[in-house]
Amino acid sequence: xxxxxxxLGMSGSDLAGEVRLDGFTLxxxxxxxxxxxxxxxx
Length: 42
Description:
By secondary structure, the chain is mainly α.
């Protein structure tokens, strides 16, 4: 679980950087999706 969480965190960081350029609203949206994804994996 820890390994999956770490990988997700790295991917999230990259995506968050791109999303920030698009807009803050998208960043919040991605945050919600990321949390949901973590729940599914766990």
